[in-house]
Amino acid sequence: xxxALIIGVIGSILFLVISQDYESDKKFNFTDEGKSYETRRYxxxxxxxDDTRYTFETYRTFKxxxxxxxxxxxxxxxxxxxxxxxxxxxxxxxxxxxxETITFKSPNGNTFSKTLH
Length: 117
Hints:
Layout: H1 2-19, E1 26-32, E2 35-44, E3 53-61, E4 68-77, E5 90-96, E6 99-105, E7 111-116
Antiparallel strand pairs: 1-2, 2-3, 3-4, 5-6, 6-7
């Protein structure tokens, strides 16, 4: 009986920590080159972890259609990136021929770009 109680308490604590990752804490809506996008930021951190992981999921949205397309998923760790993730980030999606790139710009002037597939 006591073992079941201990396992239940540990499971409840783990559920609370893990479930924080499933709800976005910030949304960025923007339009580039006539296309609409929404980027959702998810953060995962806990008092015993050294750094916080931020996941940015960028979706292509459509004005009158009830669906979206995931075009990018990018992870940053706050101690391993030069971006100021906690502040307002500007996100851009640009096309150059057949190559699409996504760029994250933080207020401190640092940028991160990658090619979309």
